[in-house]
């Protein structure tokens, strides 16, 4: 009653490899690009009509097809709701996390948008995997690490101070020592955001431990770049403090 059956059948047939040979070599990519719109039109109650097609596209040999899905999986999660997302999208999301960097960047750019839709217990499972984003196929792909730092600033609100201290703090410190200055600079903002998280939640002991670690690691670093990093962290922290306390 929503979409004429012949039209839906025509859309679902776009994943047929024979059509890629005779119609358009990128027809599967077009199918992947349109899938969230089709899912929205059908509604979550008719997701079963698209589930097999989505799984077929998610395992397509062309990385461009998987990349397209990776960039839109957070939008599909909003359409499907938490139960269908946990059952049908989380396994595919986990597969994308282990894919090529060209695919992983899709889930990374919207990591916060996807994680916030999950239940707290399911979301917590990803704390163990966030560290994997620091490692890329190509170490020169510094924008990947930059994006990670940006996402972590947003993700901080999804976890409690203890989880931030145990897992995200290590990633932040690693990024602060990155070879690329752009990555280091956004990571300094991440460090300050972590400190703000601790003190906003009255986790003063964690905040003090983290400050001491920053002093040992950067303030007393034998290399000037480490000491410079500490100065920049103080600069970012002071600016954030002024912005939060000043009344305009």
Indicate the low-confidence ranges by residue numbers: none
Total number of strands = 0
Task: Report the CATH topology name of the largest domain.
Answer: Leucine-rich Repeat Variant
Shape: elongated
Mean pLDDT: 90
> What is the CATH superfamily classification of the largest domain?
Leucine-rich Repeat Variant
Strand and helix order: HHHHHHHHHHHHH
The assigned CATH architecture of the largest domain is: Alpha Horseshoe
Report the sheet with the most strands, covering strand number, pairing sense and barrel closure. none
User: What is the number of helical segments per DSSP (H or I, 4+ residues)?
Assistant: 13
Number of separate domains:
2
**Estimated helix fraction:** over 70%
Structural class by helix and strand composition: mainly alpha
User: Span between N and C termini?
Assistant: 55 Å
Rg calc: 22 Å
Task: Tell me the β content.
Answer: under 5%
Q: What is the top-level CATH class of the largest domain?
A: Mainly Alpha
């Amino acid at each position: 009653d929503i979409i004429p059956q012949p039209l839906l059948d025509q859309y679902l047939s776009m994943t047929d490899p024979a059509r890629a040979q005779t119609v358009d070599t990128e027809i599967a990519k077009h199918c992947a690009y349109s899938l969230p719109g089709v899912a929205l039109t059908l509604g979550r109650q008719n997701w079963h009509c698209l589930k097999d097609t989505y799984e077929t596209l998610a395992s397509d040999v062309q990385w461009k097809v998987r990349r397209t899905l990776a960039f839109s999986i957070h939008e599909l999660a909003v359409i499907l709701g938490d139960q269908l997302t946990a059952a049908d999208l989380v396994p595919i999301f986990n597969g994308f996390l282990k894919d090529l960097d060209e695919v992983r960047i899709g889930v990374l750019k919207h990591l916060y948008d996807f994680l916030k839709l999950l239940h707290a217990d399911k979301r917590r499972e990803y704390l163990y995997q966030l560290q994997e984003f620091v490692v890329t196929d190509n170490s020169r792909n510094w924008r990947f690490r930059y994006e990670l730092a940006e996402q972590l600033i947003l993700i901080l609100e999804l976890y409690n101070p203890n989880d931030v201290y145990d897992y995200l703090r290590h990633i932040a410190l690693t990024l602060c020592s990155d070879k690329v200055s752009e990555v280091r600079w956004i990571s300094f903002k991440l460090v300050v955001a972590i400190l703000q998280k601790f003190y906003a939640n009255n986790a003063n002991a964690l905040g003090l431990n983290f400050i001491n670690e920053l002093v040992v690691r950067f303030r007393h670093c034998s290399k000037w770049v480490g000491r410079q990093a500490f100065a920049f962290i103080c600069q970012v922290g002071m600016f954030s403090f002024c912005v939060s306390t000043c009344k305009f």
